[in-house]
Every structure is written in structure tokens, then in C-alpha cells.
């Protein structure tokens, strides 16, 4: 096999990641926070776990609410294409991880600032689209930088892996050596759950402006790393 064919089959080396353990936990917190805050504020719209919107659309169709136009069905339909495009552009640009994180944080801060200034109104739909794009960028960052560890936006895989490991530890399944990823998964699940609680509580007080809180935490982490 010639060198050109070999190069096509070789996976690209992941780019360097700033303070990976801190960033991974922080992004899990951010994902749970933003998804929960947006879901409550928009009355049923996932901006991070976007495939969940198909479940909501199915339920709306079954209840007749989608036909009556009583919910965020248009945004639910638009969520996956917007998420896809944001992730695709992030991959196409090949930006380094810090630049992706800065871009996503600034988008969330823009949404928070607009919500704090304008309050709640028809413009919330545009804010939700911006949040979907930001989360698409962050998820692309994870795919481009596998050294970040387990997924931070969707916890089902992490929970399943932890359940299997627990079965092995208590001798309900054949023993297997620890992979070293269990601690990272557990921290991600805990941080995600804390983010969900924080997003729910602060959204009731600040509306969509609440998403500025995890965005500021991400900015602070990036500034600390830079310093």
C-alpha cells in the first residue's frame, strides 16, 4: 500500500485541549444547564439533546397540539438542521478547541445579554436557534478532540457504561479491568445533573438570560488557562 493510501486511512491526531479535565466537567454542567433552561423557557425545546425533539414532535402529533400550533413545533423541526450545520461548519473550519469554546461562549453570552435587555418576546425563537448552534459547535469540539473524554451533552451512554462497570464490580457480570474512564463518566453525569438543577432554578428567575451563567464560567476557565 502506498503512502497516499495509508494517509487516507490514518485518523487525524486530536488537537491540543486546554485543561481537559476541568473543561470536560464544565461542559457537562453547561450542557445540562443550557438544555434545561431553554427547554423550560421555550416550553419544550431541546437545544443540546436535539434528537429528543423528535419524541416531543411525536407526542404533539398524537395529542393534536402540533396541528393546532400550540407548541414550538417549528423550532423542534429546525433544531436538528441548525445543529447539523453548526457542527459541520465547525468541522470544516478545523478551528482549534479554544477558539471553538470561545465562539460558543460568546454566542451564549449574546443570548443572555439580549434576553436581559429585551425580556421575553417573539425574539426568543432566534435566541433558541443561536443556542442550538452553540451546542452544535461544542458537540463538534468533542468529536474533533476525543481526548476530552466521554460525551458531555447526552448522558445515556455514560450511565449505561457505569451500570455495566457496577455489575462487574459486584460480580454480576464477568470481571474486566477498569478502563480508567469510569471516573470521568461519573464526574460528567454528576456535573450534568447539577447543571440541570441550576438551569431549572435560575431560568425561573432570569429567563433565557440564565444561560449567561455557565457561559461566564466557561470564559473564566479559558482565561485562567490562558493566564
Descriptive overview:
The chain is mainly α and 227 residues long. Helix 5 runs parallel beside helix 7 and helix 6 runs antiparallel to helix 10.
Helix and strand arrangement:
Elements lengths: L2 H7 L10 H22 L10 H12 L1 H4 L4 H21 L3 H22 L5 H21 L11 H14 L12 H25 L5 H15 L1
Helix pairs in contact: 2-7, 2-9, 2-10, 3-5, 5-7, 6-7, 6-10, 8-9
Structure at a glance:
The chain is mainly α.
Features:
0% strand; mainly alpha; 227 residues; single chain; 72% helix; globular; disordered N terminus
Number of strands: 0
Low-confidence stretches: 1-18
Averaged pLDDT: 84
Count of individual helical segments: 10
Molecular shape = globular
Amino acid at each position: 500500500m502506498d503512502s497516499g493510501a495509508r494517509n487516507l486511512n490514518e485518523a487525524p491526531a486530536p488537537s491540543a485541549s486546554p485543561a481537559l479535565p476541568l473543561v470536560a466537567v464544565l461542559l457537562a454542567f453547561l450542557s445540562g444547564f443550557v438544555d434545561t433552561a431553554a427547554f423550560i423557557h421555550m416550553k419544550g425545546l431541546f437545544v443540546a439533546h436535539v434528537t429528543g425533539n423528535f419524541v416531543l414532535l411525536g407526542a404533539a402529533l398524537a395529542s393534536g397540539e402540533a396541528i393546532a400550533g400550540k407548541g414550538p413545533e417549528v423550532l423542534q423541526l429546525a433544531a436538528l438542521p441548525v445543529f447539523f450545520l453548526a457542527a459541520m461548519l465547525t468541522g470544516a473550519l478545523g478551528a482549534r478547541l479554544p477558539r471553538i469554546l470561545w465562539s460558543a461562549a460568546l454566542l451564549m453570552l449574546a443570548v443572555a445579554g439580549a434576553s436581559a435587555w429585551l425580556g421575553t418576546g417573539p425574539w426568543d425563537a432566534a435566541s433558541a436557534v443561536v443556542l442550538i448552534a452553540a451546542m452544535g459547535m461544542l458537540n463538534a469540539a468533542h468529536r474533533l478532540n476525543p481526548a476530552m473524554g466521554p460525551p458531555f451533552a447526552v448522558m445515556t451512554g455514560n450511565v449505561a457504561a457505569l451500570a455495566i462497570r457496577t455489575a462487574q464490580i459486584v460480580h454480576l457480570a464477568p470481571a474486566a479491568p477498569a478502563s480508567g474512564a469510569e471516573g470521568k463518566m461519573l464526574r460528567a453525569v454528576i456535573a450534568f445533573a447539577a447543571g440541570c438543577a441550576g438551569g431549572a432554578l435560575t431560568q425561573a428567575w432570569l429567563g433565557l438570560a440564565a444561560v449567561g451563567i455557565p457561559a461566564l464560567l466557561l470564559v473564566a476557565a479559558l482565561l485562567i488557562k490562558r493566564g
